[in-house]
C-alpha cells in the first residue's frame, strides 16, 4: 500500500475520516508503505539522498564533535559494539551507532534538507535506519523503504510546524527528526499502524533541539544524533511493550501545540490540529508526492539559508569578473529566517557556517564556499574580515512573504568605481527544481568519501549504493562504508 491509499491518498482537498488524526494518519502510511508501490522518481531520489547523506557521514566521522561524542560514550562506560558507522573506525552498539552517525552527518553542514520544513531529514533517518538494518539483517530494499518512511515523517511534521517552531527557538532537525527515526525503525520492525503510533507517542517525549547554537558551541552537530538515537529507542521500547500516548501530535498537550503553538491566526496560542492533513503539509515535487522527492542537496558547505545569496554573488563576480578587492558593498535582501543569520559571528567553524557576512565574504574572496574555507586561519584572514564588514543583510518583505514556499535572495553588489549589479535567485542550486545531477551527486560523494576510504573502496561503495534496493543484506555494505 502506498501513501495514495492511506486515508485520502495524500491528495490535497480530498476528504479524510474525521476520527483519524494526523498521528494515526502518519502511522497508517508507515505501516502500509511498500517499496514496490513507491514511484520510480521517488525511489531514485531515495537512492540519491542515501548516497548524499552517507558521504556527509563519512567525511564528518573525524570531526571534533563526532570524536567528542565517541569519547563521551567511552567515559560513560558504554561498551564497544558490532555496528559499523560510515567513516568511523570504532564499532558501537545499535543506539550509539545511530547517535555517532547522526552527529557525523551534520558535522560539516553538507547534509540534505526539506525546504518547507527547514529540517535536515537525512542525517537523522539514514543513521537510524542503517544501524537497525545492520543489527536485524535487513535487505537494501527494506532499508530504502524505511528511509522513504522516515523522510515522510520528519519532513511533513517539520513543515506543519515551520516557521512557528523556529521563532519559538526550536531546531526542527532535532525535534521533528525524532519522528523520522521512529518511522524508519517502525518500518524495519514491521509495525502495524497501532504500534507505529505508539512509537511516535514514545518518541515525542524525547524531541529536543534549540537554536541557541547561534550563540556558539558545537552542540548543533549532535541534534540529529540525539534524534536518531531517541527515535530508534522509542521503536525498540514499543517492540518491548512500553505503552505510549496515542494522538501525540495533535493532543492538547502534544507535539504541535508544545513546539509550534497556534496557527497563523493565533500565533503562540493553542490550535486544533486534529483535522490537520499531515501528508499534505509542505509541498511536493511535480513528479511525486513523496517528501523525499522534494528535498534539496547542498553544493556549498554552509547553512542552506545563505545559499541563494551565495549563488547570486558567485554569478555576479564570475560573469563580470569582479575582483574581491573591487567590491564596495553587498546588500542582500531575503526572508526573515535567513536575515537572522546576518547577526551571527564566526568565532568557531559552526557559527562561521551560519554567518551571512562571513559566508558571503568567503564567496567573494574565494569564488566558492567549501569546507576548507571555515578553518581557524580562514576565519582570521584579514581580507575576508574586511569583506565581511561590507556585507549587509535585511528582510525583503516580498521575499519573506514567499517563504517557506521559496528560499530567495536579492543581492545588489556595488563596486568601488561606482558600478552596480543585481541578481535575484528565487531558489538556490541543489533544490528539487534545480537539482544536482547524478554525476554531481557521485562527485560530491567521492570527494567526501575518498580521503577516508580510499579511491577503490569509495568507488565500490558508490556502485553498490546506486543499486541499494538489490543488496541482499546491509551489513556487508555498511562495513565497506566504515573506516
TrEMBL record:
Q: Provide any one GO MF term from the record.
A: lyase activity
The MmgE/PrpD C-terminal domain covers 300-465
The record ties this protein, via Pfam families, to:
MmgE_PrpD_C, MmgE_PrpD_N
The MmgE/PrpD N-terminal domain is annotated at 24-263
Matches recorded under SUPFAM superfamilies: 2-methylcitrate dehydratase PrpD
Q: Family assignment?
A: Belongs to the PrpD family.
Q: What is this protein called?
A: MmgE/PrpD family protein
Instruction: Please tell me the species this chain comes from.
Output: Roseomonas acroporae
The lineage is: Bacteria, Pseudomonadati, Pseudomonadota, Alphaproteobacteria, Acetobacterales
